[in-house]
Specification:
CATH architecture of the largest domain: Distorted Sandwich
Order of helices and strands: HEEEEEEHEEEEEHHH
CATH class of the largest domain: Mainly Beta
Radius of gyration: 65 Å
Largest sheet: 9 strands, antiparallel
Distance between the termini: 209 Å
Shape: rod-shaped
CATH topology of the largest domain: Deoxyuridine 5'-Triphosphate Nucleotidohydrolase, Chain A
Number of domains: 2
Number of strands: 11
Oligomer: single chain
Helix content: 40-55%
Length: 293
């Protein structure tokens, strides 16, 4: 059952009670004077003059201005305030407070917006609705938190919070900007490289065409040389044949000439002996006789 009696709620909020935070069925929990910065666990004192600066993507922990004390028959549930949600501030906390708890409440806040947010002292963080529950004999309750009951952050929480890292939106945007710039530079370099490749591609293409033409000319020349070699071989065979014919004809001519010379010699000898020599002898004899007379 919801506890909505103001006096009873006032009895549950044992420190920091503010009548302006009372609602019909709940109470508005406010930002207290202590906060921690995520990633460093640096403790920050919050005042009216010193609000909490939350950069985009940052995370802080705040302690409530109120301290509550619940009996064994009382529990509470928490709910986020819309004004923080509208500003892009996300409330990170457990949603239930168990019977027997005593101490301040701790809330995690994350700035999911793209702007710096100033969390003011005593800003209403969330609503707490107190409930009356049936007591369960023998059930052990959480009881008081000695650190939060005295208004201190628990050492274990501080240690874990110091290791908590977030990537702020500004840092993320810067990283994205650097990557974008690098990509643009890489694109420009690739375009320049492509232009150089295109400049080289033209001469290479022409050289390739020239090489193709030369290769074709060499092929044709090689075939021509092979054809000429074949023709040369055939010509040499023809020349060899002509040489053999010439030698044979020369041999035959030599024999014929020898025969002709021999016949002429025989004929001349016969002519000399049978005709010319007797004729000359006779003429010489006649001339000798004439001289004697």
């Amino acid at each position: 059952m919801v506890i909505n009696d103001p006096e009873r709620i006032k009895g549950l909020v044992i420190e920091g009670f503010d009548a302006d935070s009372l609602n019909a069925s709940s109470y508005d929990v406010r930002v207290g004077s202590k906060a921690l910065r995520g990633g460093s666990a640096e403790e920050y004192t919050v005042t009216t003059e010193k609000p909490i600066e939350m950069e985009p993507g940052s995370y802080v922990a705040v302690m409530s201005a109120e301290k509550v004390r619940l009996g064994s028959k009382e529990s509470a549930i928490l709910g986020a305030k819309r004004n923080l949600s509208y500003a892009g501030i996300i409330l990170l906390t457990g949603m239930q407070v168990h019977p027997g708890y005593e101490g301040h409440l701790v809330f995690g806040l994350f700035n999911a917006s793209g702007k710096t947010f100033w969390l003011q002292f005593e800003t209403k963080l969330c609503t707490i609705t107190f409930l009356e529950v049936a007591e369960r004999p023998g059930l052990k309750t959480n009881g008081a938190d000695k650190d939060l009951a005295s208004g201190k952050f628990p050492p274990g929480f501080i240690e874990r919070f110091a290791e908590f890292k977030t990537q702020g939106w500004i840092g993320l945007e810067k990283s994205v900007g650097i990557v974008t710039t690098d990509l643009a530079a890489l694109k420009t370099e690739l375009q320049s490289l492509r232009a150089k490749v295109d400049d080289i591609h033209g001469p290479i293409k022409k050289l390739t065409e020239d090489v193709t033409r030369v290769s074709e000319a060499v092929r044709v020349t090689d075939e021509t040389v092979k054809a000429l070699a074949v023709q040369h071989g055939e010509l040499m065979k023809d020349v060899a044949g002509l040489g053999r014919d010439h030698a044979e004809r020369r041999g035959r001519n030599t024999v014929i000439i020898s025969i002709v010379v021999a016949l002429l010699s025989i004929a001349a000898t016969s002519f000399w002996n049978n005709y010319l020599s007797p004729m000359l002898s006779k003429a010489a004899h006649v001339e000798t006789g004439t001289r004697a007379k």
